User: Fold these one by one.
Assistant:
Number 1:
Amino acid sequence: MNVGLPDVLVQLRSRGRQATIPSVYPPIIHYATRRGQSGKDHPVTAISRRTLIATALVTPAIARRAFSQAKVIKIGAPLPLTGALAPEGLKQRRGYEIWADAVKSADGIKVGNDRVKVELAYADYESNTPRAAQAVERMITQGGVSAVFGPYGSGAVKASSTVTERHKVPMLAPTASAREVYDQGHKFLFGTLAPNDAVTVPLARFMLAAVPNLKRMAILSRNDLFPLALGQQMEQAAKQSNIEVASFQRYPIGAMDHASALTEMAATKPDWVFVTGYTNDLILVRRQMHELKFTARVITMLTGPSYKEFIDALGPLAERVSSVSWWEPVLPYRGVGPFATSEDYAKAFTARYNVVPDYGEASSTACAVVLQTAAEKAQSIEPIALRDALAGLEVLTFYGPIKFGPSGQIESQKCPIFQLQGGKRVIVAPADIRQGDLQIIS
Amino acid sequence: MIAQVLLNGLLLGGLYACIAAGFSLLWGVMNVINLLHGTLVVLGGYLAWMAFYFFGVHPLVALPAVALLVGLFGASLQAGVLGRVVGAPVLVTLVITFGLDLITRNGLLLSFGADFRTIRPSWTLGTAEVGGLKIPLDRTIAASAALAMTLALYLLLRRSWLGRAIIAVRMDRDAAALMGVRVRHAFTAAFALSAALAGAAGALLGLVFPISPLQSDGYLGTAFTVCVLGGLGSVVGAVVGGVVLGLVESIAGFALGAENASIVSFVLLILLLAVRPEGLLGRRGYA
């Protein structure tokens, strides 16, 4: 008969031969006691000497394992590794991995007097938002994670943050910037991208100052939570700056053609064209603008130009397209964590992945650094202690100063405005980190 | 401006027709709803991209080779997998092509990753301007080539022995066999033709759209819509369906906003199904 360890312990009790049970074994003690008291145990055969010896040998090993398990912080990372958002999901994973490797080489993170190892638990939610929420639920209820890194984008974070809130597990969202994500009154949600109006208001003011006679603009937004919110914020910011919004078009998710929207926009003869969407959308829009000979003095696209794929795919057509980023490698920050400065981070990232990191990757790493700092500060890896530490955190990192507002969204971030010049991102504002002037397209 | 909107719609419709022609052929002839079709289009796009990236061959030049390769792939699938369930209920082939689609699509994901690839030939024809009308020449050539291929399919089905054999099998498999048509070969030829058209469409679309394994659903959805709109069993139906869909989306997008274009086209589709369920030019048989 195959007798398991809990059965052995039950047998020991039932025969009045009380063994010394290791103190690191509470779950099994509980299990054995419960089964013993219930009276529903299987019939027990006489315990053999061999079984006792095996038990004695196995117990320290299990004890060691149990002990070592206590020294690991498990962090859930639901990602869209397949499906429409896979490129973005893979980038986000790179941001986590470079941090996890740095922490591993430092023998874990310091929590109180212990070194705690990090274990990232990935789940592919196939770019399907409901599945992201399901993955988060599984990570918490079955995976026992102490914290969760948010899925990609505002929509998925908004959906899955209700799960982390219900289970009181902190979620750190690296790629959700829409205010609508953070206005739900959640206490366990934190985000490292500044809200959209922190992008659009300075952008409108800058363009008004940098482009002579800027009077009229046209907006084209993907009809999706983040890009649409960004477009609407841009519309408000433009109106505040007395820029007329002559056209505001929305295109559906998965649109294969933008010719009709662009034709309508071109008819308004805008000085400034502002387009929001994801990389694939923006590549197509820029190509079709060229095909239709539709141009403007300024073309701003969010968020594609931050990515190398955008520049590679468009070549000369990417030239002079402007954008806003939440982070750039040239930012002059020095702070805590495995990467002291923005430059150090960019170098380490480039050495590993052979590509300059973009803001999404940096924000993902920043989330991890912030969680590490919170664990060190709280001297605990318990979810509620981590949440409390995150809420009161005020820290300088390679990503910039990080302080979360009452809604959980970062409130300390300044977003650089850049333009693609010679195939590279050149910062044109703010003035203290400016690398060049904005070049007018036509 | 209205002329520009109509032109945009026509060019888009030409590409839609090309996506749908192969799908319609297979559905109409073999009664196989090929859920792999969108992925075959993407496969054609990747082959064209590889020809361009590794050998510097323009997609229009690579088009015959791409069509041949994807056609051979389709023929092997038919001979090796789908041929075993000829005559089975449509649900069986639906499930099989769904499985084949999953395998092929994930194979593309593993091979090429999920990033977008674009074909940027060093020479492009640019945009011609005629009386204020802007004509994107690359897109025009792609749409024209698409329509030419659809016409070639029409002629093949009408004039060649192979085409008549395929149509005979569709109309009455047993009678066709009695008349000396090798039914199994006719099925393989039809699948190969359909796949070749999908591959060619992929090469043409690669000139216009970024290529990614994730686009296959969009192409498949377009093929479905065009076929139902134009009517099964007619090459001309695929062309008409494609052009109508392109025009409706273009006009609705301009008049009501891009986000409402799909709503209008699907409302139109539902209305058509209610009034004329066989589609605009649907008929039994083919061509």
Number 2:
Amino acid sequence: MKKVSKPERGIHPLSGLFRERNLFLRVRGILLPYGFLAPSLIIVLLFFFIPLVMVFILSFTNLDMTNFGILEWWRPANWNLNNYVKIFTNRFFPKILGNTAMYTALTLAFFNMGMALVIALITTHINRRAGFAFRALWLLPRLTPVVVYIMMWKALAGPAPMGVINSIFGPLGIGSGEYLLNMSPWVFIILVNGFIGASFGIIIFSAAIEAIPKDYLIASKVDGATTWQTIRYVTIPMIKWPLLFVTTYQTLSLLTSFEYIMLLTDGGPGLYQTEVWALTAYHRALSSYFGNIQWGYGSAWAVILVIIGIVMAIVYLRVFKFGELVEEPKIDRL
Amino acid sequence: MTVRRKLRPIFAYLFLIVPSALILLGFLWLLVTSFSTKTEGLRSLGWTLRNWSFLWKPPFGPMSPSIWLITLNTFLVAAGMTVLVVLISSMSGYALSRMKFAGRKGFLSATLILHAFPSVTLLIPIYFVLRWISGIPIVGGGIPLIGGFGFNTLGGVALVMVAFQLPFGVWIMKGFFDEISWDMERSALIDGASRFRVWRQIIIPNIKPGIAALSIFSFLAGWNAYLIPFTFTIRRSGKISVLSVYLQSFMGETTITNWNAVAAVGLFQLIPVVIFFLFSQKALLNIYGGGKKGGV
């Protein structure tokens, strides 16, 4: 039998699967990708999809510790908007909203963007090895176990004889020997979250800065620009996309993060003094004192965050052409 | 002008060192405190090894679990989670990068949305999902060592962490698969290998750097995890506890916290991370680098 050599080049390697004559093989070819995806799909279904539907339903019910097992929360007859009314008429609602806005804005401005950009700029302009070492050092807080990290900060902020900041800077007249965390909890919340958050920006920005073609920098130097002018008029415009991306991504992260605040002040020291939105949801639903766990009410707080999350995620996909952005910084896209 | 020029690098280093110093101070305090009877700032008022006694005798009386059991738990959770995340993400990443099927684009953008999603908001319903899994015989709570996959088991904690890590993992693995040339895979297919065999024998060996980076990242995430084990287990210093939660229980509600002992336990949890980090920083920076997303 004479073999007909088929031209191999240019054929999509998958096209063979769809020309299969055997029905079994054809069906298998179609189903195979889903086989590969099956474990992911099961986990997404169990831990994202079902919970997402449930959190919405729960937010319309008054399910709590007292009626758990009695209330048929899945019945539409038991659904109402009471929880949402309760949130917006809550005495502390303006306080919590203000806290969340302040926490997000200040941490983002000073650390996740500001400090990250400054550190990225400096570490890319000094000796390469030194720059790398500093970037690694800034990654360390993120890798430290949360509880250990918070403990370190509590020790730094401790009262006069024990506290590190007090004992070092006290003689210079800074700090009054008090427990600094109680004196100015917001300063520490922003510092603690900022040192974690900055590393994300540092790594993305320094990768983007290093990807800028050297010609531009040399050209600006030839034209007599100072380092500051080069940074202002060449580097910053060139990393516009990473800057925008980190801003939006970190805004969402900060809005929904509460782990560090929970461990540091747990909303205190004053009444609702440092309570933020996500922490309220957690407190109401999962870690209230025994007998006062309100899953329904907590879910309503969470749902508002979920909606913000979905809207922002869609914004990523649309405005920033997220898929491409993730591959590499959009430097030539200006 | 020349003086200013010379001073500039000094200013640059100064600006780097001052904020970085806070990080270093914290870690230094941890080290000094764990070996001291009492400290004032960074000054030790007497050196001792007593804080480390938790290594050979359970700190909460003879009935409480030893630190080694807790460490084993933490390791099991982190390692189990790492294996699952790497396995599942590389399977999905492969399909998403290499195969044509209906819903591919949808799944990809869904993964991205999930990644950008405030996962903590799902903790409330996940609590009920785990409760529901607990009701299933054997799988729920009858497996030795990890306890099962339900509420208040190591398996359940690991499973939830796998879920939160998965969108990130799938995306990273897809990126690594995209880098492999089509020709190599095509020639294996022409030689008659099945897709699965191609995946196992051709692709996997070629994405080892990706697997390494994701494994390191997942393991660290699992080792450090606090919120999920804290939320989905009860009895904070009981048998089903990981190091982070155990450490938190040291900062007692009833007794005065012995900060020196806490620092020692904290350091005990931190040391593997630092060693791990020193050996793997290149690979880790890989995963963040190039604009690929990570963290938070």
